[in-house]
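Hello again, I could really use a second opinion on something today. I've been staring at a protein lately and its backbone has me curious. Can you walk me through what the tokens say about the fold? Take your time with it, there's no hurry, and the full record follows here:
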Amino acid sequence: MEIERKYLVTAPPKDYQSFPSHLIEQAYLCTEPVVRIRKEDQEYYLTYKSKGLLAREEYNLPLTEDAYRHLLKKADGIVLTKRRYLIPIPDTDLTVELDEFSGEYKGLFLAEVEFETMDMAENFIPPSWFGTDVTFSGEYQNSRLSLLKRH
């Protein structure tokens, strides 16, 4: 079970690029249910996600590079590209996954925080640099962004 909150970020911390990061490319074979392929650095995955906004089932399976490339040709919409920075939240065991998008969504920043329990997610107080909580709108789900073009 994946339990996460998502926030739009308009002013990331000045030092965000000093944190560990991963280069991510991902595309969607289906958006209902979500079937995603992802290249994260030099690793490849196929992911299934059930319906939901705050909490949903998620399963990851490893792919070979050849399988990823084959499936990429079958993807719907646009390929999303982003760099994900891993920023610890002081005095907690939580980590912010700050996504800085490139390509079609260059300039978009989204922050996600994953939780072990629903109670933790529901009582989370975000850092001051987080913007609007977009968890429940669905507007910024990556599967939805892949089908829209930014103007």
In short: The first helix runs from residue 65 to 72. The domain at 2-145 is CATH 2.40.320.10 (Hypothetical Protein Pfu-838710-001). The longest strand covers residues 76-88.
